[in-house]
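Whiteboard transcription, Tuesday session. T.W. wrote the structure tokens on the left side:
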């Protein structure tokens, strides 16, 4: 089993061999379905401060990853090329990287060549996938520049400057079909993209720092590798049948969800990239008229298979996000808007970025009702926020901005609500930060019941310990014991 000394020795031998064998040695120590690998290197002739890889079995979290990136960019090239694969796991290298001596079958020749030419590559075999999701945000903070999403063909049209930092992001696909060769072909194609990008960078003679990682672990590949390992090398073909069974089960679950009415979230795109996501099981608003609450359900006009909500007026950038849902004829108002205003900022106390849902606004016929949500609705910047119930009247998370605000005449109710306004990747929600506290009513009931049972058991044991054995017994052959009544 690999150790820290072994990894250092492998790095002295060859950078490419170290990344493949190091990943293989650590794959048995970490849960590969929860982490992704990350590889960092520089262009030929450029160098970064040498950094010791983590010890065997250590999982790199967000704060430690930020430290690695900060050291690499402090004296290294500040033109960063980020290869961001949709999914990645250790098994992608062990199965397709020629890690068992069959180098001719490796699908990463360009990656290995880049690592060989780099003076100080950094290999992080196990990075928590929420931390890998935050790589773009961390690089933005260090470089103080916005990311530029490109493909290999358009990179040649861009002219880079050594003195001006740039963050170039190349999204790489990942898919695993019913045939094992499909993943191998996709990874091989991704490696060709890496080779094409690096070749273009060399042609421009611009030093760079390159990073190769994934947004999420490729769980299918990990499960397939474990199944194959249980039966030995010859069980790979048998594992295909198990994989097909899992695919059929996923398809069955997907159809069940479709029949149950599960629909896609609302997406707002800035250019080609999704920057805001919002989903809810139910959206409803109510207004107080003549002493009665009149309710209106906005769900059918917001979600559904053939529903396209109008989002004009929405916007997003690095620190602010605004989602505007436009409706017609709501509770007697011809024009009605439901607006979510979010912001993202760095908090020194927690040493990380958080996003908050600052306000929920109802805009109708020139009037605006504003609910404040910043005190209760917040999450880490790289996460999404989810809550079973977001309301303004029963255990309110949304409160009117002032006592005279028109919001006092309104109620909003969002059931099974989830929203994300920053760091959206792949058009999917990131890991959800739930509003529920640790001590839910169910947990309190369980604790109180357990405490009551412990008290009853303790009382019973105490009573049993108070019983005393008789010190005098009747002898059937002798005279009876006489107990005076005066005693």
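and on the right, the sequence the group agreed on:
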């Amino acid at each position: 089993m690999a150790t820290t000394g072994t990894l250092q020795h492998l790095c002295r031998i060859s950078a490419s061999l170290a990344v493949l064998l190091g990943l293989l040695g650590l794959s048995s120590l970490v849960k590969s379905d929860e982490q992704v690998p990350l590889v960092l290197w520089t262009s030929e002739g450029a160098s970064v401060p040498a950094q010791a890889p983590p010890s065997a079995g250590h999982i790199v979290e967000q704060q430690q990853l930020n430290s690695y990136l900060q050291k690499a960019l402090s004296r290294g090239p500040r033109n960063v090329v980020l290869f961001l694969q949709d999914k990645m796991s250790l098994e992608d290298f062990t199965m397709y990287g020629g890690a068992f001596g069959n180098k001719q079958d490796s699908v990463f020749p360009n990656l290995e060549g880049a690592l060989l030419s780099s003076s100080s590559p950094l290999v992080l075999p196990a990075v928590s996938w929420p931390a890998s999701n935050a790589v773009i945000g961390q690089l933005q903070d260090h470089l103080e520049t916005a990311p530029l999403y490109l493909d290999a063909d358009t990179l040649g049209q861009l002219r880079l400057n050594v003195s001006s930092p740039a963050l170039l992001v190349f999204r790489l696909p990942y898919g695993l079909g019913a045939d094992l060769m499909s993943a191998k072909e996709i990874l091989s194609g991704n490696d060709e993209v890496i080779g094409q990008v690096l070749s273009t960078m060399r042609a421009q003679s611009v030093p760079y720092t390159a990073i190769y990682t994934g947004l999420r672990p490729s769980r299918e590949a990990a499960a397939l590798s474990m199944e194959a390992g249980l039966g030995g090398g010859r069980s790979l073909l048998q594992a295909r049948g198990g994989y097909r069974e899992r695919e059929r089960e996923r398809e069955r679950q997907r159809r069940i969800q479709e029949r149950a009415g599960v629909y896609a979230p609302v997406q707002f795109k800035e250019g080609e990239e999704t920057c805001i996501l919002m989903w809810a099981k139910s959206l409803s608003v109510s207004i107080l008229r003549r002493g009665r609450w009149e309710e209106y359900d906005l769900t059918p006009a917001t979600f559904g298979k053939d529903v396209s909500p109008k989002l004009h007026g929405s916007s997003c950038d690095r620190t602010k996000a605004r989602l505007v849902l436009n409706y017609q004829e709501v509770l007697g108002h011809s024009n009605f808007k439901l607006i979510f205003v979010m912001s993202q900022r760095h908090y020194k106390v927690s040493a990380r970025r958080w996003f908050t849902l600052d306000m929920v606004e109802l805009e109708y016929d020139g009037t605006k009702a504003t609910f404040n949500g910043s005190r209760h609705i917040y999450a880490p910047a790289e996460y999404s926020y989810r809550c079973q119930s977001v309301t303004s009247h029963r255990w309110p998370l949304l409160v009117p901005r002032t006592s005279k605000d028109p919001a006092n005449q309104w109620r909003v109710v969002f059931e099974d609500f989830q929203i994300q306004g920053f760091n959206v990747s792949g058009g999917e929600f990131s890991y959800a930060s739930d509003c529920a506290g640790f001590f839910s009513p169910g947990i309190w009931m369980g604790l109180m019941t357990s405490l009551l049972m412990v008290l009853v058991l303790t009382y019973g044991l105490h009573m049993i310990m108070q019983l005393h054995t008789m010190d005098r017994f009747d002898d059937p052959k002798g005279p009876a014991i006489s107990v005076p009544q005066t005693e």
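Someone added at the bottom: Residues 35-216 form one domain.
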